[in-house]
Amino acid sequence: xxxxxxxxxxxxxxxxxxxxxxxxxxxxxxxxxxxxxxxxxxxxxxxxxxxxxxxxxxxxxxxxxxxxxxxxxxxxxxxxxxxxxxxxxxxxxxxxxxxxxxxxxxxxxxxxxxxxxxxxxxxxxxxxxxxxxxxxxxxxxxxxxxxxxxxxxxxxxxxxxxxxxxxxxxxxxxxxxxxxxxxxxxxxxxxxxxxxxxxxxxxxxxxxxxxxxxxxxxxxxxxxxxxxxxxxxxxxxxxxxxxxxxxxxxxxxxxxxxxxxxxxxxxxxxxxxxxxxxxxxxxxxxxxxxxxxxxxxxxxxxxxxxxxxxxxxxxxxxxxxxxxxxxxxxxxxxxxxxxxxxxxxxxxxxxxxxxxxxxxxxxxxxxxxxxxxxxxxxxxxxxxxxxxxxxxxxxxxxxxxxxxxxxxxxxxxxxxxxxxxxxxxxxxxxxxxxxxxxxxxxxxxxxxxxxxxxxxxxxxxxxxxxxxxxxxxxxxxxxxxxxxxxxxxxxxxxxxxxxxxxxxxxxxxxxxxxxxxxxxxxxxxx
Length: 526
Fold this sequence. Notes:
Oligomer: single chain
Mean pLDDT: 85
Shape: globular
Number of helices: 3
Structural class: mainly beta
Distance between the termini: 14 Å
């Protein structure tokens, strides 16, 4: 394995790069690959991670049977071998708006047409038995869905009714829906809805008022919607919470993390973290971006040094530094010893509405192939204010991997310069990480190359670059698209990477040497 070039990772700044040996980082291999030939009129695949149960692929076939749309659903195992494939008959005009995997069930959520008051249809497909169940979720109100989560026996939908947050629970056994009480509060925003490891779920609400006492409100409910815990965390009235994620109770502690700004700015000033504790007042740790070791590495060395120097001066004076940027938290993960947060910096298209959504009504939807979030909400249409509708290219500038202790205090961070990777009309998660036991690896894909950065227990930072490979020795990858491609954490110490490639087989025995394929590669770090 060859070490990645210095400039790719640090932007020419002070991060120490050590020439990588295969013994120091561990073996990086691509032990499995899935491939499907792709034609020009074929829809792109939507990829649903089933963790240690494999991967599910879903796409619209653009074919019809007795007036219904045909969708293709495929299950792969962890060796990327096809286990089964089926066709789903979906009512005409239905569009896929959400997906999830829980307890061996693949969840697919469709809406009838575009209008927010139209009914929803939920399909559950058992990953082992292939049993299919269909549920009709009647909409009595115009409910703009922004979050979709699955629990054992229920699903939770978060969104807005008349610009006020609402959460709807649907019980799979009784096939009845109900609104969770305690929402419908004006001038508030639903930042997160997330299921915990114990089958409870969290909601995170931020107040959007100019009054002196503003709060960040965390509520935890059981799977039937009964309130278990509520924590109101007071916010400095001069500051504004832009985004937020909650951890999922792998630890006894629950961490809240996201971006903040000063006043009504549309750009973030830094990252905040705080632990949930309803029994006593807990501090919010506000870190401006200049306080992190490598967050501003994507800037020129002179500009980065200036940002850090001003950060030190501002802290002494008790003021907020003037540096701000467009930043989005993408994923919050936890281990018994602490937490890790992935955030990414981007430059929005000029036509993108990047003001916080409370200034312009609730946000529009933007396609997100991960079910954001990762980040997050497993929703096909991302709710976040930086994903509003636009027509230009968004540039992804930098990804940051931050590590916090069990009290939510900053320990260390690492980063990768994203070389202005362009996304058409949206902000999507670009990089991802493995945070498993002693393994901490940040990864990013651009065209054929996959860049990896590892943090070793002794504090060393190692990097490597590998190529996205075919498993056929005579294949030559002519082109690997930089659109509709990414890398994602899968399970334990494995990533999966997908995309579309133009391949030429150099063997003389092949009749047609050229093919264009959709592929998934497994990336294993031992």
